[in-house]
Amino acid sequence: MDKGKTYLVTGGAGFIGSNYIKYIIDKYDNIKVVNLDKLTYAGNQENLQSVADKDNYTFIKGDICDQKLIGELFEKYSPDYVINFAAESHVDRSIGNPDDFIKTDIYGVYSLLENCRNFGIEKFVQISTDEVYGSIDKGSFSEDDTFNPSSPYAASKTGGDRLAYSYFVTYDLPVVITRASNNYGPNQYPEKLIPLFITNAIDNKKLPLYGDGKNVRDWLFVEDHCKGVEFVLQNGKNGEAYNIAGNCELQNIEITKKILELTGKSEELIEYVKDRAGHDRRYSLDDSKIADLGWQPEYDFEEGMRETVEWYKNHEYWWRKIKSGEYLEYYKEHYGEDM
Ligand SMILES: NC(=O)c1ccc[n+]([C@@H]2O[C@H](COP(=O)([O-])OP(=O)(O)OC[C@H]3O[C@@H](n4cnc5c(N)ncnc54)[C@H](O)[C@@H]3O)[C@@H](O)[C@H]2O)c1
User: Fold this and answer.
1) In a domain, 26, yes or no
2) Domains held by the chain: number
3) Cα(129) to centroid of ligand 1, in Å?
4) Could you tell me if residue 124 is inside a domain?
5) Rounded to an integer, what distance in angstroms lies between the CA atom of residue 20 and that of residue 4?
6) Residue 112 lies in a domain
7) Set 88, 130, 230, 249: catalytic member
8) CATH code of the domain containing 16
9) Is the predicted pLDDT of residue 1 greater than 80, yes or no?
10) pTM of the predicted protein model
11) Which of 19, 287, 240 is nearest to 123 (CA)?
12) Contact, 184 vs 308, CB < 8 A?
C-alpha cells in the first residue's frame, strides 16, 4: 500500500474525480490530496462534502490551462502524482460548441505536462476514454488499435491522450494512460444517459432515446473505475495505456428498460428522438492487458444500477438543484419543452 504521497487531482469536483478522491482518502491513511477544479457547470463541491473538512484535503478553484497557477501549486505542494480527470466531457455539448473541449482537453493537458516536466513528478495519469477508438461492429479494441475518434469530444481527448504519451517518449516523463468505458454511479451530472433517465423517470417525464435505441456501450460502475485508475497508477508501466472495461455491453434500450423497472415506471415514458450527429454505434474494449496485471471490475450491472437508482432516489436535493436554472435552458434547447 502506498502511503504519504501528495496527489494533485484535477477535475476532482466532477463525477468520476470526486468519487476517486473519496476513494483514495478512505483507502490511505496519510496521503494529501489537492483538488484543482475550474468548477464549470459540471463541477460541484457538494460531491466532496464528506472530505471537505479533512486536514489532508485542499480545494483550489482554477483552470488546468493556467500554466502559472499550476506552477505555483507545484511549488507549494510538490505533488508526487498528478491525476488528470479535468475535461469537458459531454459529447452533445462538444457538437454544439467544441471550443472549450479543444482548450481543456488538449491545451489543459499540455499545461499540466509542461509543469510536470519542469518540476518533476513520480507519475502522471491521463484519464482518457474508450471514445478515442471510435465505433466497432464486431470484436473489441485493444490498446494498440488505431484511433478513430468521431466527435469533437473524442478527438480532443485523443489529442490529450497522445500528448501525454509524447511527453513519455520525448522527455521520459513517467506517464500512464487509462481508457475507460462509459461510467455510471452516484454524483453523475444528470445530462448523461443514466442519471438523466433515472431522474426523468422519477418525475414521470419522457426518456428521450436517440435513434433506434440500439447503440451499444460497455458500462462500468464508477467505483470500479476509481479502483482501476488507482491500480494503474500503482502498477502500470510508464508509457503504456490501459483499457478499463466494465465487461457489460448493453444497448441503450436495455438500459432504459432496466431504469424503468427499477423506478417502477411504465415503458410508455420512452420517447424515440432524432439521433445524435455522428452517433457511434458500438464501443467495446478488450481489457486483457489490465486483467493480466491482476485487475478486474467487481460490480455486476444489476448491483451497480440498483445502487445508482437508490442514490438518485435518496439525493433529490442534489439533482433537483442542478435540473433547475441554467441546466433547464440547455436541456429544453436540446430536447424540446416536453422532456
Ligand atoms: N463519464 C464517463 O463515462 C467517462 C468515461 C471514460 C473517461 N471519462 C473521462 O473521465 C474524466 C472525468 O469525467 P466525468 O464524467 O467525471 O466528467 P465531469 O464533466 O463530471 O467532470 C469534469 C470536471 O472537470 C472540471 N473541469 C472542466 N474543465 C476544467 C479546466 N479547464 N480546469 C479545471 N477543471 C476543469 C469540471 O469543473 C468538472 O468538475 C474526463 O477526462 C472524461 O473524459 C469519462
Assistant:
1) yes
2) 1
3) 11
4) yes
5) 17
6) yes
7) 130
8) 3.40.50.720
9) no
10) 0.96
11) 240
12) yes
